[in-house]
Automatic annotation (TrEMBL), chains A, B:
Organism name: Aquamicrobium terrae
Listed SMART domains: FCD (SM00895), HTH_GNTR (SM00345)
Domain HTH gntR-type: 7-75
Domain of life of the native organism: Bacteria
Single annotated GO MF: DNA binding
InterPro entries: GntR_C, TF_FadR/GntR_C, Tscrpt_reg_HTH_GntR, WH-like_DNA-bd_sf, WH_DNA-bd_sf
Protein name: DNA-binding FadR family transcriptional regulator
Length: 225, 225
DNA sequence: TTAGGGAAAGTCATCTGATGATTTGATGAT
DNA sequence: ATCATCAAATCATCAGATGACTTTCCCTAA
C-alpha cells in the first residue's frame, strides 16, 4: 500500500479518507458521512477524526460547514503535483529549470527595461568568486542573478515556477550531491547580460543554452554512476 | 489582512501560528512552544490547537515528534507558490505553457521512442474537428495530444508541471473567456509530429513555436481590451 | 390552500479531563 | 567514564459534555 510507517492515527485516518475521495467513492460536492459515522468507519476517536478531516480541509480536498456537514471540494489536490515534481529525478528537475533559464533570457531580450540591465550588471558585479565570499554566499548570489534574468522576462508565472524549481533543486543538491556540480563561469554570465541587452532573443537564449549544457551533462554523469 | 471572516477558531489559530513562522520569529528546525503554552498564547483549547497544528503539518510547515515536540520544517509553504501562479495573468500562464510545449517538442525530437510517434499519430487521428465531436470533447483530445508530446520528451518533471498549467489555464478560460481562443489547426499538429519523428530538435521546436505565436497574440489582444 | 414562524433534529465547533506512548535528559551504580 | 534505569516533558488518543449553526418539517394563521 502506501507507507506502513504511519506514525499516528490521524495521518492514517486522513489517508483512508483520501482514498475514499481519490477512489471516486465520494464525488465532488457530495456530503461525506458525519463525524460519528467516521468514528465507527475508521475505528478512532472523534478528536482524531477531526484532525484527519482538518488535514484534508487544509489541503483543499474537503470543506466543513458547521451545522450542515463535510463536503468534498476536489478529488485531487493540486499540491500533490508539487510533491510529484519533487520526486522526479534531479536531472529532470534541472533540465526544466535550465529550460526556463533559456526561455526567460529569450523573453528578457525582447521585453527588458533599462533598469533590468542595470540590476543584472550590479548583481553580477557583487557575485565575486567562491574563494572570495565562500560557497554558501556565492551560490545564493548566483541564484539571485539567474532569478533576476527571469524577472526581466516580465512574466510573473515564470518567476513563481522558477523559484519553485530553484528551491526543490537546492534542497535535493544539499541532501545528495554536496557541491559536485561545476562552478558557473563569470565570463559566461556577462555574455548572458550583454545578449539580453542587445535585444536579440536567439542570441540570449543561445548564451544560456551553451552555459547550461555542460552542467546538465555533468549532472547526468553523476546520477547515472 | 487576510480574511476577517474566520469561520472557526482552528483556522484562525493556524493563521496565527503561520504568522509566527513566516514572520521569522520561529526559524527552521526550531522547536515551537508545547501544546499547553500554545493554548495560553492562542486562547483556545488543546483540541483546537492540535487541529491548527495538524493543518500546518499537512501543509508541510510543521512537523510533530511524539515525546519530543513540534518543529518548524519550512518557513514558506510550497503550495502557496501554485496559488500565486494561479493569480498571475492568463497571458503569462499561457506563455509558460507554450514555452513548455516548444521545449518539450525539442527534447522529444532527441529522445522519443518509436511507440511515442505511433501514439501521437493515433491521438491526432482521433482528434477530428469541433464540428464532428463537439467543443468539449475536442478540447479534451487536443490537450491529450499536447500532453503526449510532453511525455515523449521523457522528462517526468516537465509532464507534471505541464499538467498543472493545463489545469490552471482551462479553469481560467472556462471562467472568463468562454471559448474565444483560436481553434488549433490539424495541419500544424501533423507537422509537429513529423518534426519530432525526424529527430531534428530545432525543427520540432520551431513547428510548435509558429503554432503558438498567433494564439498568444490573440490572447494578448483579448486580455488588453 | 398557502405562506410564515418556530420548534426540533442533525451536524460541526469547542472545551475539559484523563490516560497512553515516546523521547530526552538526569541520576546513580559499576 | 560508561551504561542501565528512571523520571520528566511532550505529543497522541480517548471520552464526555456543551454550544452554535443549518436544515427540515410541522403547525398555525391568513
Amino acid at each position: 500500500m502506501k507507507q506502513a510507517i504511519r506514525t499516528n492515527l490521524a495521518d492514517s485516518a486522513a489517508g483512508n479518507l483520501r482514498a475514499e475521495i481519490t477512489g471516486g467513492r465520494w464525488t465532488v460536492g457530495e456530503r461525506i458521512p458525519n463525524e460519528a459515522t467516521l468514528v465507527e468507519m475508521l475505528g478512532v476517536s472523534r478528536g482524531t477524526v477531526r484532525e484527519a478531516v482538518r488535514a484534508l480541509v487544509s489541503q483543499g480536498l474537503l470543506e466543513t460547514r458547521q451545522g450542515s456537514g463535510t463536503y468534498v471540494r476536489a478529488t485531487a489536490d493540486p499540491a500533490a503535483a508539487l510533491d510529484r515534481v519533487r520526486q522526479t529525478c534531479l536531472r529532470d528537475q534541472w533540465e526544466v529549470r535550465a529550460l526556463l533559464d533559456v526561455e526567460a533570457a529569450r523573453l528578457a531580450a525582447l521585453r527588458h527595461k533599462p533598469e533590468d540591465i542595470a540590476r543584472l550588471r550590479k548583481l553580477l558585479a557583487e557575485r565575486r568568486t567562491v574563494a572570495e565570499v565562500g560557497r554558501e554566499v556565492f551560490v545564493q548570489r548566483d541564484i539571485a542573478f539567474h532569478r533576476a534574468v527571469v524577472q526581466a522576462s516580465g512574466n510573473e508565472a515564470m518567476v513563481e515556477i522558477y523559484d519553485f524549481f530553484t528551491a526543490a533543486i537546492t534542497d535535493a543538491i544539499k541532501s545528495t550531491l554536496r557541491g559536485e556540480v561545476p562552478e558557473p563561469d563569470t565570463q559566461a554570465h556577462a555574455e548572458i547580460v550583454e545578449a539580453i541587452a542587445s535585444g536579440d532573443p536567439d542570441r540570449a537564449a543561445a548564451s544560456v543554452r551553451v552555459f547550461m549544457a555542460p552542467i546538465l551533462l555533468q549532472l547526468g554523469r553523476l546520477l547515472s554512476s
